[in-house]
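Posting here for the record, re: flavin-adenine dinucleotide.
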Amino acid sequence: MSAAEATAETVTRDPAKAQNRDVVEGAGFSLEIGEEQREIRDWVHTFAAEVIRPAAHEWDEREETPWPVIQEAAKIGLYSLDFFAQQWLEPTGLNIPMVMEELFWGDAGIGLSIVGTTLASVAVVANGTPEQLGEWSPQMFGTPDDVKVAAFCSSEPDAGSDVGAMRTRAIYDEAKDEWVINGTKTWATNGGIADVHVVVASVDPELGTRGQASFVIPPNTDGLAQGQKFHKHGIRASHTAEVVLNNVRVPASCLLGGKEKLDERLARAREGTRSSGSGNASMATFEASRPSVGAQAVGIARAAYEVALDYAKTRVQFGRPIVENQGIAFKLADMKTSIDASRLLVWRAAWMARSGKRFESAEGSMSKLYAGETAVRVTGEAMQILGGNGYTREYPVERMARDAKIYTIFEGTSEIQRLVIARTISGHKIP
Ligand SMILES: Cc1cc2nc3c(=O)[nH]c(=O)nc-3n(C[C@H](O)[C@H](O)[C@H](O)COP(=O)(O)OP(=O)(O)OC[C@H]3O[C@@H](n4cnc5c(N)ncnc54)[C@H](O)[C@@H]3O)c2cc1C
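Prediction output follows.
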């Protein structure tokens, strides 16, 4: 089923729920989730509890993509374009955060292996034409019998937070109606093992970020190779690697959005006109995607908190469960409070994004910042509550603490989130 068909099916599936779509036009916010949403959340939770959790330790130790788990997810329809498209299109905006939280409650490394493909597919949704969406999105996921993954490659060795410093270059070969791409990408989730790569490249370096464009690199394209695979502190089941592009040639149709639209955009940028809010448009895209990353951090934090709470109630020292010491009980109270606060920030931003609300205070960045930092704090406290056991790999909180740290680094570091929030609330240029 194509993404367009999936969209159509979702919209027409249940006419009785049609009135829910009014939310997109700005209906009220409710924390009361519907019956269908609860069913989806519980279905994902069951998969996380029965399939992901039991596999987490093994794949963390192996530091390899957990293909059998992705295949299991594909068999039940959880790893599929159809499933993710339907959750994105659900009118309240809360389904994606709920799904993310449950998957990452199961395990973050495996969770990212399952949702990593969506990074690339969202790039196609944001920048591509409906035809490109229909052509590439299904190929990114493959089929339950032949599962594929996709990669989104933006970061470079000298262009991490500073995306404008990107060196990967795409040059149009008019004679062949092809683009030729050269450069080195780094930190790409699924880089090199993906069938489809989406690569951001500079088409006019003088224009900085406004001179960049995104390209789909089809499967088995000559010149694309995996470079170094990284051995990481956490989320070790998720594959992260360099992607080297050496005279990669792709048809003109692989430029997301098409050449005509790109030429218009470049012309506006060269004239110096701030193209009718293109900066605002990309800002809105980032703000819209950040809550789903925040939700992943909420899932890790909740998992560690639950382990710590159980442990504190059963571990006896000085003749009583350690939870009966205020020093431990107050930690748990603070952990639970900040997890719930994170989820509320995430849900608010997700609802705003789906409802087309303006992010007046960078609410998407706020949700990712707070949830990421909460995950680090909560997993650290969970290790403390488990004492010596928390410091071993026999108990899961040590892995969760390692996994949590990435949420202050990728998808915009905590410092960059603070920069975005500070600039938005002050209206000042903060360097
Ligand atoms: C496991 C993993 C998976 C990833 N997956 C992907 C992926 O799939 N695709 C992709 O394109 N990228 C991916 N990334 C890259 C990730 O988004 C970058 O690592 C991140 O944006 C930070 O860039 P950097 O590592 O170059 O750090 P730098 O930008 O060099 O930052 C280093 C430090 O300086 C701080 N800093 C930088 N500029 C400022 C400033 N102006 N003010 C204050 N502080 C500042 C940062 O906050 C940070 O603490 C991944 C990274 C990791 C580790």
